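Q: Protein A?
A:
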Amino acid sequence: MATAHHADDHRAGRRSEAVGENYMRGLYGDDDYNATHYGHQQQQRPPPAPMAVAKALATATAAFSMLLLSGLAVTGTVLALIVATPLMVIFSPVLVPAAITVALLTVGIVSSGGFGVAAVAVLAWVYRYLQTTTSSSGQQPHIVKDWAQQHRLEQTRAH
């Protein structure tokens, strides 16, 4: 139905916004959108009392549930800290070097992988560069020419 009105507005030369506040209001069912957008006057009616009570009850229930879960999470975290702190102090001579070792191993493995990827990328770029310069001009690129000339010059000097 909104598409037919949109097409009528377009044919009549009236500007109709396809995206924006009005579009979103119509999409999500804002009650007074159709009335104000298409020039109809409509009385604003307050929502029925049972509906308002149901919405308030649902909102209060959800808020209370979230508050309860939040409190339980904080309580669990504090209890875990109370239990774990003495264990961390007792095992810190072992845990700290172990954590440092794990961190160094992780950094080493990740950086070696990154350097490997970079090396493959550079090799691929060089290969593509050599292929495109050789194929487009029909000749070897100047780098390869210079190397070949240098190699020939060294061979002549050796004989």
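Q: Protein B?
A:
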Amino acid sequence: MTDTWLIVGLGNPGPEYSGNRHNVGQMVLDELAGRIGGKFTSHKGARAVVLEGRLGIGGPRVVLAKPLTYMNVSGGPTSSLAKYYGIAPDHVIAVHDEIDIPFNSIKLKLGGGEGGHNGLRDISKALATKDYLRVRVGVGRPPGRMDAADFVLRDFGTAEKKELPFLLDEAADAVEALVRDGLLDAQQRFHPAKA
């Protein structure tokens, strides 16, 4: 197995979904791609676009990946890429939207449940383990009685859009800290202190 990290940004394909809360994982990968200074290209062995590079000067080697499948079938591309690059599940990071975290917050974890997130459920099934890393980007809870599925398939609100660049920047920093410094150090940096 290699020291390379596979970082998968979850979302749905196509321009009609690109601004949705559900696609915040792919937005974070676009931010990381800008830092690496490259463009995503089609991967012949998986239904995904990828960008290979290093995070920072002399930093860890990473493969950024955006599946071209719908969110709830993200497992196939993730598993195919992990096999292709020889990457173990403990070096796979899924970056995804999380309604159980307030907007503008980020949480990092290894393994655990999927919290009703079908994209994560499919990745767990395809990798045959839940023991991969997650960068959970808070998108807030649906207002009133709105269905969670409807909520995540909507674009961010006007006030949120003003804050979104800062959230994406912080989430990208969290991914970098995770691969460079490990989970515990990254959690201490990005999880808010309990009052």
